[in-house]
Structure formats: C-alpha cells, structure tokens
Write a structure and sequence with these properties.
Helix content is about 30%, strand content about 35%. It is an alpha+beta fold and about 260 residues long. Strand 9 and strand 10 form a beta hairpin.
Length: about 260
C-alpha cells in the first residue's frame, strides 16, 4: 500500500496542532533500532487516536536495557501506511499476530532531547499525547501530562525543614513483594514511608485498592505510612510536613 498522509488514517477533527506528540512505547531493542536507524514505527491498526500527531516520541520499556525507562528521542511523522505485520517483519512468520494489520509510521530524522524524560516513579505508560514544548522542558513522565512534580516540591520542603530522607527507597520482603516509596525517613524508634499522592493517579479506584494493600504490607513490615495529598504539597509544602515533624519526634527523633 502506498504511503498516505497521516491525516487520512488517523481520525480526529481538523488539522493536527504543530505541537501534537504521540508517545509510542517500544518493548524490544530491535524495534527501537528500527525506529532510530530505519525510520519507522508500528502501531496495531485496531488502535484509535484522538488527535493526528505531528511527532512521535519513543519510550523504550526497561526491557530495552540501558536505553529503557526514559524518552530520549522524538521524530516527525512524515507519512503512514497500513501494512500486515508479516510484510513489516518477514523474519517473524510464526508470530501469532503475523497476519494482523498495523499502521506503519514513517519517521523523519530523529531528534535527541537535551535531557531525557525519565520515569522514576515507574508509571505504566501506553499510547498517550503531549505537546512538543512540554516534551522538551519535562524531566519526568508525569510532567508530560500536566502532573506537577510533587516529589521535587516535597524534597525541597524536607530539605528546608532539615529532615533527612532517602528518595525512591526500595522496600523488599524476601521474594514475596517489593515496593518503591517516595521518601524514607529513619528514626531512632521507627521508620516512616512518606508518599506523595497525585490526585489524578491515586484518586483512581483501582489505584486506591493497590495503595491500601501496599500500606498494610508496609505497616506489617514495621513502617509508619504517611500520605501527603497533592493540594497540600502544592499550596503549602512546608505546612504539609508539619505533622511529619511531630511524628518524627514521637519516634525518638532522626536516627
């Protein structure tokens, strides 16, 4: 099938905004190489899109090795073709989706970001949209979607209050479970798991259920769990951690 303009294949009203960026997840190293070196990326044709992208930003999953877990590259979308997977990847004829249709996005010259957009909180990422200006200035995945960098605000507030905390601390319980907490504060008579709750993320019913299970497990492992709501962190970050200072005092002070 001959190459056609993206507007003919991606549904959505009007012309695409000059800044519209589609974030595409890449799960295999060879697919990342194809995008960067051969200039194309595939999306299942069953997918629907709200906007017509001008650019594609590549998010390699952590399975892609040292390049994974961050957005380092984006490229202009110059055209789209509808092709079967077997035609795109003839070396994988036995793949269970070999006969299915895909959009092949033909890409222009890749551009490397001045600084990568990292996923320190390991948010689950699927096809999503952002803008080119936001992509260029963001340092964390959440910022691409207008989610405030709460962890950075909280870190500065903790430092200003003289509270030493270990960021992105991993708590393990053998092979049964493992959690990464935003900040860990160690006291003489206990330890505190401090979590920054994003309203968009932690307000979802499914996430609330996961958070409750996580909190129970952490408490059983000897942690005191403290949640800082987004609005308090944004409006009065120093006031938000006042209860934390009282809790530290009740646990014998900083270790």
């Amino acid at each position: 099938m001959s190459t056609r303009a993206a507007k003919d294949l991606f549904p959505g009203p009007g012309e695409p905004d000059e800044e519209t960026v589609l974030i595409g997840v890449v799960r295999r190293k060879q697919d990342l190489d194809r995008a960067l070196e051969e200039g194309w990326y595939r999306i299942p044709a069953s997918s629907t899109f709200r906007h017509r992208p001008r650019y594609l930003a590549l998010y390699p999953a952590r399975s892609c090795g040292r390049r994974g877990g961050r957005i380092s590259w984006y490229a202009p979308v110059e055209g789209v073709e509808r092709r079967r997977r077997i035609d795109l990847l003839p070396g994988e004829p036995e793949h269970p989706r070999a006969g299915e249709w895909y959009w092949k996005l033909n890409l222009g010259q890749p551009v490397k970001l001045a600084r990568p957009v990292r996923n320190r909180l390991r948010r689950r990422l699927v096809f999503a949209y952002t803008t080119l200006s936001r992509l260029r200035r963001s340092g964390e995945i959440g910022e691409l979607f207008g989610i405030p960098p709460l962890e950075e605000i909280a870190r500065r507030a903790l430092a200003a209050a003289g509270i030493p905390a270990r960021e992105q601390f991993t708590v393990r319980h053998g092979k049964r479970w493992r959690y990464r907490i935003d900040f860990a504060v160690f006291c003489r008579e206990g330890k505190i798991a401090l979590e920054c709750d994003h309203s968009r993320w932690h307000g979802r019913p499914a996430q609330k259920k996961k958070d409750r299970l996580r909190d129970r497990r952490l408490r059983r492992a000897g942690w005191t769990v403290v949640h800082l709501p987004e609005d308090k962190i944004l409006l009065e970050p120093l006031a938000a951690i006042v209860p934390l200072r009282k809790l530290i005092a009740s646990l014998g002070g900083i270790e």
